[in-house]
Specification:
3 helices; five-stranded mixed β-sheet; alpha+beta; 93 residues; 5 strands
Amino acid sequence: MRRELLRSTAFVRAARRMVKKNPGAADDLRATLELLSEDAFHPRLRTHKLKGPLAGSWACSVGYHLRIVFSFVQFEGREAVLLQTVGTHEEVY
């Protein structure tokens, strides 16, 4: 089931900052977002539920160092993915 991706302003800001620092990460991010839309639990994404202050959110991997934090929400009567932030492990957790 394909899910729509909803980008929060925090996600957009973090993605711009990340791509500015590391232009090579743009292609990885684009490919990961496409895969996340197609299948949020694809093994390559290593999707996992978060605990503690981020309980209720999920995270997936963009390559080795980067993570996307997101949650599943309802949008126009369908399940969608709300992208919350992107960054290194230390930046997002």
